[in-house]
Design goal:
It is a single chain. The protein is of the alpha+beta class. It is built from five helices and five strands; from the N terminus they run H-E-H-E-E-H-E-E-H-H.
Length: 175
């Protein structure tokens, strides 16, 4: 399999070409160990909500509850994660396809508001690498100290309960 950096560069190039409406040649998945076919995506905020996920990434498969170690949730108008040694973030792991990643990038405002990042999570005792989103520095500065809107807090809380994830949204604990 080609190295991971090369793969992510090819993926980003292909996704950008789709956004421009001129698809580049799809990378040969056989040369990439089949990695082109699907990936994991870790949701920790409103995308945990089954109704929202169904609208944003229709057809994505829920793998289960997952834990991201050494990160914490930060309340910045919408959920964000920050590196925090010893902390954990519980969320939902999805199996997604390339078009889901494009849709997520659009809904998450990538690359202006959130950046897509590869992180390791634990799900069912297995360590898996997956995509997730973190706010950009500019978005963090602009939104620092802003509380979740009530509708967003309810949506995240409902999503956490749907999947047995620790609900840090209901009581305002996601500081």
């Amino acid at each position: 399999m080609t190295n991971f950096t090369d793969f992510t560069a090819r993926l980003d190039e292909f996704l950008a070409s789709l956004r421009r409406g001129r698809p580049a040649a799809k990378p040969d998945s056989r040369k990439m160990g089949g990695a082109w076919q699907s990936w994991y995506y870790f949701a920790y905020g409103s995308n945990m909500n089954a109704r929202r996920a169904g609208l944003r990434i229709p057809g994505a498969r829920i793998v289960g509850k997952a834990v991201l170690r050494n990160y914490a949730i930060r309340e910045r108008l919408y959920a964000d994660i920050v590196f925090s040694p010893g902390a954990t973030v519980e969320g939902v792991l999805f199996r997604v396809r390339p078009w889901h990643v494009i849709r997520l990038d659009i809904f998450e405002g990538a690359p202006r508001t959130y950046l897509r990042k590869m992180v390791p999570v634990t799900c069912d005792g297995r360590r898996l690498w997956c995509w997730t989103y973190m706010m950009t520095g500019a978005a963090c500065a602009k939104r620092e100290g802003l509380k979740y809107p009530p509708w967003y807090r309810r949506m995240c809380s409902e999503g956490a309960r749907q999947h047995g994830v620790r609900d840090v949204f209901a009581g305002g604990l996601g500081q």
